[in-house]
Amino acid sequence: MTFVDKNLFVEGHYLGKPAEFTDRIILKRIALTEQIKDFCGKDLTLADVGCGNGASMFLLADKMQKCVGIEVFGTHQAAFEQMKAQTNATNCEFIVFDIEQQTYPEQFDRIICFEVIEHLADDKNVKALYNMLKAGGKAAISVPNKWWIFETHGAKLPLLPWNRVPFFSWLPRPIHERFANARIYTQGRIRKLLAEAGFEIEEISYITAPLDVLKDSKLKSWLLENIFTGNTTNVPFLSTSVFVVVSKPD
After folding, report:
1. How far apart are CA 23 and CA 5, in angstroms?
2. Distance between alpha carbon 49 and the CA centroid of its chain, in Å?
3. Is 162 helix (H, G, I), strand (E, B) or coil?
4. Which of 121, 124, 163, 205 is buried deepest, with most CB atoms within 10 A?
5. 172-to-130, 175, 186 alpha-carbon distances in Å
6. Higher per-residue confidence, 94 vs 18
């Protein structure tokens, strides 16, 4: 059973728990990102918006010229700096910055933003990502998938200590967003949001559930080998996240 961790709330904001460096979801996202044509390059700058502990960014750092991890609070900076020292990623830095309240003073060739948009006070502020991207630049974005069986970010449900009730995310949006700790998206909803911000949608897919929350067991191994295979799936119910590749017109 998963319970709401009060430590994940900072100044009233639900930050969520960043994925660990060994989590399968990180490896899936990075594998999909590296498959994007010309996404990585030693002459390219990268911003990881909502970088958390930097787990995703450090896996790409040696393929980029410079990487900047951006977080609204400094909660995860110690873990970030520890991993930076361990990996000797001298081209990486951690910046505390609120993209919803301020205009970032630099543009980047590439942006990654994984499981962050759902936490914005207003998801229309995704326009900030568009403004941070250079013309002709690309971004890889993921958001939680509405059609996954469990509520990935949990919810504040009356009388229920367990915050990941099955099928809760399938409820109509007004009901879901009244209790959920974060928004959740269909492919149509995130496609529309990003297009309205000015992005061109290059690719969109469902990331196959990594089953990271399950303890290692014979059952988990069987599920990963027979049901939850590959990095992407065509079956929405087998996916935890929607992965979108966008670009900014020249």
Report:
1. 19
2. 9
3. coil
4. 163
5. 29, 6, 12
6. 94
Q: Which stretches within the chain are classed as H helix?
A: 24-34, 55-60, 77-87, 127-132, 173-179, 187-196, 218-226
Which residue from 241, 210, 244, 234 is spatially nearest to 36, judged by alpha carbons?
Answer: 244
Q: Which of 245, 202, 248 is nearest to 109 (CA)?
A: 248
CB atoms within 10 A of CB 215: 7
Nearest to 192 by CA among 115, 117, 135, 104: 117
Domains and CATH numbers, the chain: 6-247 (3.40.50.150)
Instruction: Look at strands 41-49 and 64-71 and give their pairing.
Output: parallel
CA 21 vs. chain centroid, Å, equals: 14
Q: Which residues pair with 245 in a beta bridge?
A: 140, 203
- Dihedral pair phi/psi, residue 123, rounded to 5°: -70, -10
